Structures are given as structure tokens and as C-alpha cells.
């Protein structure tokens, strides 16, 4: 059974992230390439700034919130990170959430959906996220989704995707599922060896 987790990176009150996340989750369900799809909202998870005494690489967690976050990430086979652009980068809450863990991210595929109010659609957030996700061992899809003018596309809490956004999201999700099919056996071999 394959599990896709969609991580909403904005913790800002009134964020449009949940509306866009619902669209991505619905699109993934309609494609039928993942058995289970779950949305992880960092605003609800509310991790404190990294407060573990040991390096995440050691996996020697001491806090209940870290154990819960570790389980949530570890059980995923693939991720989509839904990332707003703040001042040319991605939100501190996402960096914090990534930094909490280490092995849980390795050899898992990642699709990135960025959004912003301007025409760039969050391209700066994606460019700053990629070195971090690569360092953690995530394998990012070539296809990504950039949503410019995103606030205007959310009406009464519903994200109204354009045809181009629909197509880009479908391409990203298909590539994500293909990557998962390739990486899954590698993850299984690593687990069997440990």
C-alpha cells in the first residue's frame, strides 16, 4: 500500500494553503496511483523550534511531538510539499519540520507545489527548498507546480485551478508515483539490511 502525504507549509492564520492542498489531494485521489492520501498541516501539528538534544541523524528522540512527527513522516512513501513564498524563500516552519528528522526522509520522492501573489508563483521558495530536500535524501520530481496570483484563485475557500495548473499537477503526481515505484525497492532493501 503506497501512502502520499501532502505537507502544508504555511502556518499563517487564514492561509490559502488548505484550499490548494485539498485540490492536490483530490487530484491525487482521482489519478488513483496512491492507495492512501493524507494532508499534514504544519499549523495544526505546531512543532516547536527544534528542541531535541541529539542530532536527528541519531534518531534518539526524547519529545512526544518528535516521536509523533517521526511516525507521520516515516509511514509516507512519497510527499508533496505545498510551499508559499515568503521574501524569496520558504517558511521557517517548513525548515524546522524538515530539520527535526533525518532517516525518515531518505530515498522518498518529493513533488513541490509553490504559490505566491506575484507572477513567479513561488519560484524563489522552490529554488531555496531544493538544496535542503536534496541534503536530506529526498528525490524531487522534475515537474513542479508554480501558482502565480494564487490568492485570486481561492474563492469562498475553494481553489479554482486553471487548465495549466491541472495539467502541471497531474504531471507532477504521475512522476511522483513513477519515482516511488523506483525508490520503494531501494527503501525496502535498506530496511532489510538494518
Summarize the structure in words.
By secondary structure, this protein is of the alpha/beta class. The chain has a single domain, classed as 3-Layer(aba) Sandwich (Rossmann fold). The chain is 42% helix and 18% strand. It contains six helices and eight strands; from the N terminus they run E-H-E-H-H-E-H-E-H-E-E-E-E-H. The protein has helices spanning 17-31, 42-45, 64-74, 92-99, 123-135, 163-193; strands at residues 3-8, 36-41, 78-84, 109-115, 139-140, 145-147, 154-155, 158-159. Strands 1, 2, 3, 4, 5 and 6 form a six-stranded parallel β-sheet that branches. A two-stranded antiparallel ribbon has the order 7-8. It is globular, with a radius of gyration of 16 Å. It starts with a strand and ends with a helix. The mean pLDDT is 95.
Topology:
Layout: E1 3-8, H1 17-31, E2 36-41, H2 42-45, H3 64-74, E3 78-84, H4 92-99, E4 109-115, H5 123-135, E5 139-140, E6 145-147, E7 154-155, E8 158-159, H6 163-193
Parallel strand pairs: 1-2, 1-3, 3-4, 4-5, 4-6
Antiparallel strand pairs: 7-8
- Percent in helix: 40-55%
Q: In terms of per-residue confidence, which ranges show pLDDT below 50 for 5 or more consecutive residues?
A: none
In CATH, the homologous superfamily goes by the name: Flavodoxin domain
Shape: globular
Radius of gyration: 16 Å
What is the string of helix and strand elements? EHEHHEHEHEEEEH
